[in-house]
Amino acid sequence: MTNATIPTSTVTPPDILRCAYMEIVVTDLARSREFYVDILGLVVTEEDENSIYLRTLEEFIHHNLVLRQGPVAAVAAFAFRVRSPEDVDLAEAYYEELGCRTERRRDGFVNGVGDSVRVTDPLGFPYEFFYQVDHVERLAWHYELYGPGALVRLDHFNQVTPDVPRGRKYLEDLGFRVTEDIQDEDGVTYAAWLRRKDTVHDTALTGGDGPRMHHIAFSTHEKHNILSICDKLGALRKSDLIERGPGRHGVSNAFYLYILDPDGHRVEIYTQDYYTGDPDNPVVTWDVHDNQRRDWWGNPVVPSWYTEASLVLDLDGNPQPVVKREDPTEMAVTVGADGFSYTRKDDIEHGFKLGHTL
Whole-prediction pTM value? Predict the structure, then answer.
């Protein structure tokens, strides 16, 4: 991984359908099971002493999240489903031409998934592409299994990378389309949201030291489900797991909550963004100084949300080195004595709504 320009592959990229699952390494499988199953209500597809396979209530493929016991908390794979078996071949050829390391396993890297290719992509992230997958029962009509905070779908990933424009071009070449971004008047890009399915994003790029995983996001049907999760965490005396929110984003227009698992992996609970499927869907660009871009109500962003993220692994299972962002950071230009923000851009006085959380 370098900051050099990423070459353009002459090979047709794979036809990616959607983000499908993430494999994360956790240091205490029992504590992680309590968080993801007992508290959040994800469904156990299968488990053994070293791993747990979890899915959301409306999912029909084997899993959306794999928890694997290991010595270092990190992300082993960001996995995308492709349209056909031939697209796995295309993915392998595409990344080989880019000069990336690839590994192919006809029987899959995890249970429930068949022929797959994993790559260390040009940004240093471990991507996986697969088509073959075991089907399981979709529990959408089993309302007796739904808790008030039911997680119904995997929505997106969010990746931290030092050079957002470089990552944006790479993902656009791969077939992703940008829906929203954050920039300043000097042309610095702080974040971008990119999609394959017809929502705001399947993954996002957040400018910062990377490669690291910012969060994985699961959807609920409605915002009251998110409030129920907050109430449950409070009742369990686990409110310290809430990092940020609940609130409504400006970017994506979605209602959100950010919580931290026992290893500090960040999970977003997310609902009610908007349709983006038309070919001429316009890109929404936010000013980095717009006080409502990250929270529509103008609430402050806690510093840890900007600075903390999970390590990612190479194909040998070793943590990738973290490269420092050289461009200005979003936190540096919007928080603190030298930062400013606005709610109404033409107001004479600018000021940042600090509240009491910083």
Answer: 0.95
